[in-house]
Design a protein that fits this description.
Blueprint lengths: L2 E10 L3 H17 L4 E6 L11 H4 L6 E10 L2 H13 L18 E6 L5
């Protein structure tokens, strides 16, 4: 069954085009190393919560938008192998492709798919 890496981050609204270019390059690298699908979503209806919420989780600041993304891999083994290659790829190094967001506020994790309808 597939394996999914999920990501949530806050990005300055004014940096949408920069983020989109960054995400496109990253998606091509992920796909090159075995990902079957990469999805990037720009938040346009992401409410503040009272106890928990996406904005609270990423400590969204004024003028920022929550971005929700995921990468689908054929398996956990494919992800583990592919992610090592992605992280080492020179095209995604900070001096080559600076992150258009605060990486300290990035939330991520790997997930086993248990329902896929």
């Amino acid at each position: 069954m597939n394996y999914v890496d999920g990501f949530v981050v806050a990005v300055k609204a004014d940096d949408r085009d920069i983020y989109q270019r960054h995400a496109q390059i990253a998606a091509e690298v992920f796909k090159e190393y075995g990902a079957s699908n990469v999805v990037e979503c720009w938040g346009d209806d992401v409410p503040e919560g009272k106890l928990t919420s996406f904005p609270m989780a990423v400590k969204r600041e004024p003028g920022e938008v929550v971005v929700f993304s995921w990468v689908v891999w054929p398996s956990r083994a494919a992800r583990d192998d592919g992610m090592k290659k992605v992280m080492a790829d020179s095209r995604l190094q900070p001096d080559t492709l600076p992150m258009p967001f605060d990486g300290k506020r990035l939330i991520y994790g790997g997930f086993q798919v248990i329902v896929d309808v």
